[in-house]
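Both lines are retained for reference:
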Amino acid sequence: MDTTTATRTAAFFDLDKTVIAKSSTLAFSRSFYHGGLINRRAVLKSAYAQFVFLVGGADHDQMEQMREYLSSMCTGWSVAQVREIVGETLHELIDPLVYDEAVTLIEEHHSSNRDVVIVSSSGSEVVEPIGSMVGADRVIATQMVVKDGRYTGEIDFYAYAENKAKAIKELADTEGYDLSRSYAYSDSITDLPMLEVVGHPYVVNPDRALRKEAASRGWPVLVFSKPVSLRQRVPSLPSKPVLAATALGAGAAAAGIVWYAARRRERNRGTD
């Protein structure tokens, strides 16, 4: 690594319930439903899993169930159709969900010449546009296999738990980030490996297990509670193109989409 670039630093943000107030991929499921990608039965079947996510996050076993479920559910989906749906509804659905406190932190890190990286178990078709909207420089997201423009149902890279930490280390090697002076933010105990790889970990709206871990390690606990429309908060905030991390190609399918999208319609009745 070039010593002139080894002094660079970055801030790594989990997405759901850290940068935005809800699940990024759940937000699009009504559109997926109307687009014919999911059916009403799938929506209802997933209602309980959605509730678990909203209340306390998903544990390891539940995340593994999600992974298996999404692998079978997305098979045959058109990548172009997913991108089109996300692009058409991004600002309407996601813009009002962004935490004011998260945007302030992103601005502060940029002012300190740090790159901002969104690290999410959702897929690039969701994470990259949201990253662009909030001013992130790069994203790390789940990658699914695409063949002939459609998802095969196989997962090439699952951006979850230890895999997040591994991808962060690889990106740091490529970009010259000094992780000992970098920052990370997350709400979930499943992101403990991600928090452990940086010198400045912060927990945001933590689940019970992560709150306990933070207390034992003396990590700062942040409370984000002010979702605000970006257009109202900073009308001139420029959207910027984001680069997917090296191993997570821009053509990757959205693993989080196919699990969480099936549950959005039920959620809209109670929370939107």
Q: What stands out?
A: The CA atoms of residues 59 and 190 lie 7 Å apart. The chain has a mean pLDDT of 80. The beta strands are 10-13, 115-123, 138-147, 150-157, 183-186, 200-204, 221-222, 243-244.
